[in-house]
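pinging the channel bc i need a second pair of eyes. not urgent but kinda urgent?? the chain im working w is below, pasted from the shared doc
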Amino acid sequence: MAALDEASRLGCGYAEVRLHVNTYTGYSLRSGVTEPTVLVDSRGVGIRVICGGSLGFGATNVLSRQSVVEAVNMAVKMAKASGDGGEKYVLSAEESVSDNWSVSEAKSLYELPSETVVSLLRDVDSASSREVKGFSFPVRLLRIDCSTEQKLYMNSEGSKISSVVPRVSFHSVFVGLRDGERVTVSVPPGYSGLGGSGGFELIEKLRLEEYVASRLTEIATTLSSTTAPPRGERVDVILGPNVASLTSHESVGHPFEADRVLGREAAQAGESYLKPGEYNIRLGGAEAYVSDDPTIPNSMGFYLYDDEGVKARRRRLLQAGYVSELLHNRATATKFAGRSNASARAVRYSVEPLIRMANTYIEPGDWSFEELLKDTRRGVYIKSFMEWNIDDKRLNQRYVGLEAFLIENGELKASVNRPILEISTPKYWSSIDARAKDMEFYSGMCGKGDPMQGAPVYFGSPHIRLRDVVLG
């Protein structure tokens, strides 16, 4: 309360305080050798105030009344210094909330013996160090990250929310060698991860020893292919969840961040192909559906309230090809939508909340994968990818396939070598004609802001099909 009382004394129209504690333990094994465990403990208080219509931010990692009061004064000075008679910083009207929530753990990360994690990594390493299809994997990097995020949020409107979210994830990278050929791959492909919010039971359910060895075998098999994909002709392309999930994050999630639409991120992470006021414009076809939902249980981006005290809900960004909703905080909501949709997040005490994705995904349809195949006369199935890029406005994107197969008369045929899907964003979302029922989610860290904030997220998708596209 000291922060809120001091802000009121100094004449601020609004103030909020966030006590934010992050603990992190990182375990890694490099080619069978245990690396030093990484321990991080970050704790402090972040404070935002609105004075005279201008925003100010202050922070301190000294948890004493005097230090907190000094941080409030710093925030107030910043607000007054930035007030130049320009546009006022206005927050949307939201309900005040009092709540206490947490994610349960069957196997607590705090009480987790380090020997348990290292032993699991050693088992995975042993299973993945064998030669496969002529490929040896002399360099193997395996990592398990465990973290717990605790917050106490209060604002001058009467909200008080406390939360605890444990998260755990697995990542791996392998360097393969065969006949002088060198290739770097990850499991899962695309340098994403597996995990979510909860205890170590999430990792144990993955059966990593079997999963990683199996996926390496499948990847090595396709790496052996020398068959070129169809080029210069229009074909149908089925994308696996590994590929399609990233497209939802990069070509819809980021450009639908309202602060990015307004140009705030232009010098840091890029711009958006959308312009203010472009609601209900057509971006794709009738099968283009993309949502972002923080409330998916045990997801990496799970939360019930954002860092402005607004209750979380699903945001449907793309509906039947039309722009339906942007990601908003309370400030951008006043410019666009009227109410925030709880998209403001900060990853540590010393940075301000930014508009962030949580769990972005292409919504499932009603086809099975087998039905998609059977209905495809000639095409390519790109199961996973090995590299990608997208321009600053998120208007043109490119994905290089890792595991890919020719489709002929509804059946998977030979593996094809590195098909390239290079396509504009409107063309991509307009080409989708079918979505499967299956869904897969991958975990990752989404970067944004200066200083950089890496926020935990999911990206997901079912299998989808693109009609009549040309591969490189």
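so Residues 65-82 form the longest helix (18 residues). and The first strand starts at residue 14 and ends at 30. — does that match what u expected or am i reading it wrong
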